[in-house]
Amino acid sequence: MPENPSRDEIVKARKEVYLGSVVAPRVESRKLFLFSLLCALALFPLLQVASGRFNYWLHMLLFTFLNVTMAASWNIIGGYAGYISLGHNVFSGIGGYVAGALLIFYGLSPFLTAPLAGVVACLFGLLFGLITLRTRGSAFIIATIALVLLTKLGLDNWELLGGTNGVSLPLLPLPARFVKLPFYYGMLLTAVGAVYLSYRIRHSKFGLGLRAIAQDETKAEVAGIPTSLYKILAFAISGFFPGMAGALWAYYLTYLRPTIYFAILGAAEIVLMVLLGGRGTVAGPVLGAVLLVAMNEFFVARFGSTELNIAGTGLLMLIILIFFPEGIVGTLRDRKKLPRLLDWG
Amino acid sequence: MLLEVENVTAGYGAGPNILDGVSLRIEQGKSYCIIGPNGAGKSTLLRTICGLLRPRSGRIIFKGEVLNNLRPDQILRKGICFVPQDRSLFPEMSVKENLLMAGYTLTNKQDLEQRIQTVFEIFPVLKERQSQLAQTLSGGEQQMLAMARALILKPDVIMLDEPSLGLAPLVAIQVFESIKKLKELGMTILLVEQNARKGLECADWGYVLDLGKNRFEGPAHSLLHDPQIEELYLGKRRGTRPQGKTRTLEQGVDGS
Amino acid sequence: MALLELNEVTKRFGGLTAVDRCSFTVEAGTITGLIGPNGAGKTTVFNLISGLLKPDVGKILFAGEEVNGKPPHLITRKGIARTFQIAREFEEMTVLENVITHSPTRGLPDLLKRSVLKEEREKAIALLEFVGIAHLAYEEARKLSYGQKKLLELACALMADPKLILLDEPAGGVNPRLLERIVEHIETLHRQGTTFLIIEHKMDLVMGLCHPVIVMAYGKVLAKGSPEEIQEDPRVLDAYLGAA
Amino acid sequence: MIQLVQVFLLGLTLGGVYALMASGLTLIFGVMRIVNIAHGAFILFAAYLAYWGFKLYQIDPMFSLLFTMPVMFLLGMGIYRLLFPRIAGSRRFTSMTVLLTFSLALIMEGVMGFLYSGIYRSANPPYTTRALLFGPFYLPLAQLYATLLSLVLLGLLFLFLRFTRTGRAIRATMQNRTAAQIVGVNVEQISTLAFGIGTALAGASGSMVSFLFTFFPAKHWQWIGTLLALIVLGGMGSLPGSVVGSFLLAVIAAYLGYFYGPTWSPITFYLALFLILLIRPEGLLGKKLEA
To answer: Which of A39, A95, B11, D53 would bridge with A247, disulfide CB 3.0–4.6 Å?
Structure first.
């Protein structure tokens, strides 16, 4: 190596290039933007209160929040730890059924029981993790598919909750003008929570360990990381916010039905969102969710066919996998063109 | 000149050069032994010649034709057979089927059957075991099957990578006997061997590699007694050798 | 008391006995060399010690405590670090993160801490400084040259302040100048009290650095002694060159 | 007692069809390490071919394999050539193949849904309503024919793999890819062929499915769930294992259906999958699950 007297300076310079965003003023502008975005989202319903003509937009936003929650949570196990789950909608389904059952049998509002639904989803994830995480690679993915099918089958046959036909939930007793508002705020909170959790994990020891597992599991184990524990924890944690979101979503839709909550297409879309945005990045899943909701809306409006929608989902996923496996954020970062706004690690 | 390796460099993936400018000249009908300490690049050299690894630079010329960019199956058809270190048998196929697979590039069934019979004559033990699965053979038998498999094609050059590896000494001796038999049959043999003494005994000419480079070469029998080789394997002696004094060693628990 | 002790350890793969009733000790404060021809079972011994494989028979004791059958991460926690023959790195992480991944965490609360703590960063930079690649700390690890990756492995191994370091061919694929540095580092660490067990094929290096040297062949320990003794032992030469 | 034997027979006569369905998937995994999530969709596509062949041209679905197999064979080879060489060197090959075939399954599901709508369909040649009676037992003819035909096809597959040069090359590639290269097998070519044969087997399965079950575009998920359980149980990449697994689970599922009602019988497959992952991840006859 060339003898360079100012190695300290080089280190510092490189560090600044790498951690550019950490240097004070820029962070402030990012934080400012985020803060204003949140404020705008929080204040948006006032328009609805005032005019009553924004129900469609409220619905779209709230649907986006749901997807952001799902994508950001999936990313914890699928992105950071590199364990692909093709059945992640199982968590929101379970959350929905838990909260729905509590509402029907005990009259407890899902707004109160949503965290509990999240915890149940978490425990479910823990159990699944204990069973399957000894396996790696394709066997794990197969197991996640089976998990959805198994859960669906179970609920299809659970007559108490309506079986295949499902069961309707009581409406939230509010006038049509306001009925979406509690859901909107609830889902917004869930999404913010999920993204914040994903951000915190990305920058924690835990996240470092998960990323190590994704890249070389044996080496990670020798580095002193209890890989099995990490994987099981990651899978369980990635179920919490989807469980909560599912509870709210079921109440919002006012019915429980296995075909809706346990469709493979649902799981596919979660995966697609993260792949589109960029696996293993913090901003990617958020970006992917927003883009996919917008695209879906555009195509459904255009062609109005759910069948072609399924084919489109598949085709888009195929194209991304072959041509942009790193997704938007990853590809931009590789080309060093990632805007600071999206660079959260 | 049957086979010429000219200044070849090669390595795995993005890794460093394992071969760092190696040259060989192989003549028809002679046998060669490549020796050198671990990490000298001996196995890598054979893998590069047979096409499992692409050379980064340099040329491999066989019968006047450059082989550099051919696939393994194409090189095989030119007449170079390779018996790798791990023997690469098909564990769940019978001995006979392994030999049938060896003749995969041949299309004449009767011819193939005849060649298998010829090979059985060279390795009678394989004939006895022809319907046994390859994974049930002993280590020495597996090595013989691997060599037999290469013979099916009557190749111009047969390359053997450490045929004695993992074999008990007595079995290794049998394997070396078989190699000598091949030599008597007039085969051109390129042998890589850790067991330098035995390997050189089977060869006409020896190449010594170290760290991916040619170190020196010479007639096999003269290399056998070259003090440089000992040094290569065990390092330079520090100080002069104490004469006539045997030191006692602390033995391992199972030391003999 | 020996820092590490293998007692009649055996490991079979299918029909092949890779390690066959192998016993040896590594005394604290030594740089012990482990040599032997290809296929002697050296790397398998490393995998057994670090817990990646479980012995079929036999015991492995570290500082008097039985560690065979424990998962690798627990063995690492007890103070055994290792490097791999072919350098393995977390390629999409920065060099610094690679080192810090090896920093021990205790209990669940530790998991929530920031991925790179200030004191860890300082320690890791100091280690990278020590092996001479601190200027690359914020590069992605996959961009390093092979030799630099070897140095990174060494820095990683040091992060948890191990009592014993297992080095698998530290000189493999490394140019002579870099090799000199690696040797210097090993000697420095040795003076500071770290024990080493080193698999190496460059005999000049082994003979200059290690004492004692253990020779393995056919999965067994053939001999153990000072470098000079090993060089004199006819059986060792036979193991390498084959019986005449 | 008679009932129990009857259930056993019914399960057994489905086992052959399951085995045929699983064999293609196993072949593809064994040779190329690709978990083909689209296999169920391939079967379904072929089932539609057979169905329309019956509806429009009155071709007996059993004979439809004369065209479903060649069509699927070519389709499979085309898809393989188009997609897989591009990801050959990718670092996370396994998960890439799963995601890729997963998206393929979605595409096929969508296209079939668009073309044929979500209506439940089933071909109904005359033998679907008849049964073979002997003593106190009966066997539905459709199920019997399908399983016999499946067994014949599996037998042909076995003979092909066992006694032909190409078949041997496929087995060789399954057992040791490098060794196959060393003896001169062009493994890329063999992989393409094996993928083609795998999908052709899906084609044949589709022909059987067309008159055995009712189907609709999203049905393939249920099948792929069943098939994945079968190949994990059999030990991934082991053909004998998947055949044994198929018969075993078909019979267990039949009993479960008999005791707890038909809607519960598919649960056999998923429970078996989790159980096997928990107890013996390498499967019944498999050696080691790849990392």
So the answer is: A95
Contact of D95 with chain A, judged by CB distance below 8 Å, is answered with yes
Q: Which domain holds residue C22?
A: 2-87+161-243
Cβ distance D182 to B88 less than 8 Å, yes or no, reads yes
- Give the Cβ contact number of residue C3 at 10 Å: 21
* Domain count within chain C: 1
**Do B97 and B111 sit in the same domain of this protein?**
yes
CB-nearest to B93 from D165, D171, D186 is D171
Partner A contacted by D103 (CB < 8 A): yes
Does a structural domain hold residue C189?
A: yes
- D168/B72 CB distance under 8 A: no
CB contact under 8 A, C91 and A17: no
CB-based contact B100 D185, cutoff 8 Å? no
Counted domains in chain A: 1
In a domain, B23, yes or no: yes
Q: Measured between CB atoms, which of A156, A268, A308 is closest to D114?
A: A308
The string of pLDDT tens digits covering residues A220-255 is 999 999 999 999 999 999 999 999 999 999 999 988
Q: Give yes or no: residues B105 and B227 share one domain.
A: no
The residue among D22, D27, D38, D21 whose CA lies nearest residue D79 is D38
Which residue range is the domain that position B128 belongs to? 89-154
Say if residue B219 is in the same domain as residue B107.
Answer: no
Q: Answer whether residue C92 is part of any domain.
A: no
Out of D168, D176, D184, the one facing B88 most closely (by C-beta) is D176
Do D106 and A314 make contact, defined as CB atoms within 8 angstroms? yes
pLDDT higher for A4 or A333?
Answer: A333
| Buried residues in D246-278 as b, exposed as e (16+ CB within 10 A) | bbbbbbbbbbbbbeeeeebbbbbbbbbbbebbe
Gap between the Cα atoms of A92 and A75, Å rounded: 15
Structure tokens at A241: 């916010």
Given a contact cutoff of 8 angstroms between Cβ atoms, the answer to whether D106 and A265 are in contact is yes
The answer as to whether C152 is a domain residue is no
Pair (B138, B216) in one structural domain: no
The class that CATH gives domain D2-279 is mainly alpha
ipTM value for the complex: 0.83
Q: What is the pLDDT of residues C199-212, one digit of tens each?
A: 988 788 888 899 89
**Is chain C touching chain B, with at least 3 CB–CB pairs below 8 Å?**
yes
Radius of gyration of chain B (CA): 19
**By mean pLDDT, which of A259-268, B228-237, D83-92, D264-273 is the weakest?**
B228-237
C27-77 confidence digits (pLDDT tens): 999 999 999 887 788 999 999 999 999 999 999 999 999 998 899 999 999
**Residue C2 CB partners (closer than 8 Å, separation 6+):** C25, C26, C27, C28, C61
Q: How far apart are CA A235 and CA A76, in angstroms?
A: 8
Residue C140 touches chain A, beta carbons under 8 Å: no
Per-residue pLDDT for A335 more than 80?
yes
Mark whether A and B touch (3+ CB pairs within 8 Å): no
Question: Are A275 and A152 in contact, with CB atoms under 8 Å apart?
Answer: no
Whether residue B5 is found in the same domain as residue B114: no
Does some domain include residue C179? yes
Nearest to B89 among D168, D169, D179 (CB): D179
Residues of B in contact with D184 (CB under 8 A): 72-73, 76-77, 104-105
Domain count, chain B: 2
Q: Confidence class of residue A10 from pLDDT cuts 50, 70 and 90?
A: low
**Do D271 and A135 lie within an 8 Å CB cutoff?**
no
Nearest Cα residue in chain D from A79: D95
The better pLDDT of the pair A29, C75 is held by C75
Output the DSSP codes for A314-325.
Answer: HHHHHHHHHH-T
Domain that holds residue A56: 51-263
**Which residues of chain C are within 8 Å of residue B251 when distances are taken between CB atoms?**
223-224
In this structure, what CATH number is given to the domain that contains residue B18? 3.40.50.300
